[in-house]
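Long-time lurker, first post.

We've been arguing in lab meeting about whether S-adenosylmethionine would sit comfortably in this protein at all. Half the group thinks yes, half thinks no, and nobody has a model to point at. So I'm putting the question to the forum: if I give you the sequence and the SMILES, can you give me back a predicted structure of the complex? Inputs are below. Any interpretation is welcome too.
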Amino acid sequence: MSERSGNSSSSGRKKGSSGRSYRSKAGLTLQPKKMRGRKPSSQRWLTRQLNDPFVAEAQSRGFRSRAAIKLEQMDDKHQFLVPHMRVVDLGCAPGGWLQVVMKRCRIETGKGALVGIDLLEVDPVPGAELLVGDITDPAILNQVHTAINGQADAVLSDMAAATTGHRQTDHLRTMGLLEIALDFADQVLAPDGIFLAKAFRGGSDRQFQDMLNQRFEKVRYLKPPASRSESVETYLLATGFRGAPPDDRFVDAPEEQTGYSPI
Ligand SMILES: C[S@@+](CC[C@H](N)C(=O)[O-])C[C@H]1O[C@@H](n2cnc3c(N)ncnc32)[C@H](O)[C@@H]1O
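Top reply:
Settle the argument with this. Predicted structure of the protein with S-adenosylmethionine, as tokens:
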């Protein structure tokens, strides 16, 4: 009996995780029909989208984003999404992760809760509460507390800053968002809660890992198959929240505590 790898067909054509071919019958990479007038970066993006098996899989399964496949893959392996959790999804547009959480945490049963926040409007996801705003806005934090009725069991963040193309700048911006997400988690997570967040490998990610180690029982780096191997994108999964260290806990600015500003 001949041995065949899981993602190639007898014709030798490469297949996606859905088993569908993402090459043309002639084995050529598919190209977008209208290339004229597009910037090279946009041409590259379109070509990659057309040939990406996870884009095809996400579309065929009715997901709003290929990111949904990444969350599924991470949860298949580590099983952190459990029924009736109270989940906060930071940077949730267009809503792929919301769809996955809704199903895996069985939110539609009326138990648990799901709150999504994004700068952009998101099409409704029945059963989820969606907030439009910046997660750095304290008003959003209050709205989240109200929506989940206190504390959350999981804070997920797939937030990414708009990329500039300058690697170091993009890294720093995303790591900045990550710290903001952790600060948010410090303020809403229940004991033993989990935090899953997108990070970029390189530079300050080790420092960030130390911050997680101070707060959580266990911290792991995840790289789901749908996260492109050439990308520095990675995910950090931290489980068993113990609380923020005392010196990192959110404190009011001096003038808010005393009415007096030292400056
Ligand atoms: C990669 S997308 C998220 C995809 C999503 N997980 C899904 O499955 O559809 C990242 C999102 O983070 C959002 N974002 C970035 N900075 C933000 C901020 N400060 N507050 C709220 N959302 C933010 C962006 O608007 C963007 O929609």
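For your lab meeting: Residues 1-25, 251-263 have pLDDT under 50 and may be disordered. The beta strands are 86-90, 113-118, 129-132, 152-157, 189-200, 216-222, 233-241. Whichever side wins, do check it experimentally.
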